[in-house]
Automatic annotation (TrEMBL):
Organism annotation: Algoriphagus halophytocola
Transmembrane segments: 12-30, 36-56, 76-96, 147-165
A Pfam entry, by short name: DUF4199
Keyword Membrane: yes
InterPro entries in UniProt: DUF4199
Keywords on record: Membrane, Transmembrane, Transmembrane helix
Protein name: DUF4199 domain-containing protein
Domain of life: Bacteria
Signal sequence, start to end: none
């Protein structure tokens, strides 16, 4: 079983660590780096999945890859990546409360600046519910949101990459 997941763990850990590092670096530059880190995640997630599946196919599976094997390796890779990213961002914000407050303030400012547009499109109830939700924002919410936005594209990319790299023995 470890032959299936060695490359997945390795590249999931690497991708998760790069995601946490990018969050910290982008936070030093921009303050609220949550949106930019999501964009970075859209780049690092498929790269990590592709390399993990490719390494598994070439070095652990004699050049063959079934769709199920690709999906399994990709799943482990993006779940490890998302878990490390979530934990790293959560811990960063726990130890750096000023950054968390800056992110929260930034999100509340964006909401208040777009109040008229939100109310006209979605109604006052939706705006009030969003305001209440943002007021109760925690460090965990930011880390968990980042993880979700690595898992959803991770599943999509895993399906595509598994189909592209699939090669069954004759």
């Amino acid at each position: 079983m470890s032959k299936y997941f060695t490359s997945a763990y390795r590249f999931g850990i690497l991708g998760g660590a790069l995601s946490v590092v990018s969050f910290i670096v982008l936070s030093l530059i921009y303050g609220d780096a949550t949106n930019l880190n999501l964009v970075f995640g859209y780049v690092i997630t498929p790269i990590s999945i592709f390399i993990a599946i490719k390494i598994f196919k070439e070095y652990a599976n004699a050049g063959y890859l079934s769709f199920a094997e690709g999906m399994s390796v990709g799943f482990v890779c993006y779940m490890v990546l998302a878990s490390i990213s979530c934990a790293g961002i959560w811990l960063t914000l726990m130890f750096w409360p000023d950054l968390f407050q800056e992110i929260k303030t930034s999100k509340l400012d964006v909401l208040s600046n777009n109040k008229d547009s939100i109310v006209s499109q979605l109604g006052v109830e939706s705006y009030d519910m969003t305001l209440k939700s943002l007021s109760n924002l925690s460090q965990w919410d930011i880390g968990f949101n980042d993880a979700i936005w690595k898992i959803i594209p991770g599943l999509f990319f895993t399906i595509i990459i598994s189909i592209i790299l699939r090669k069954n023995p004759n």
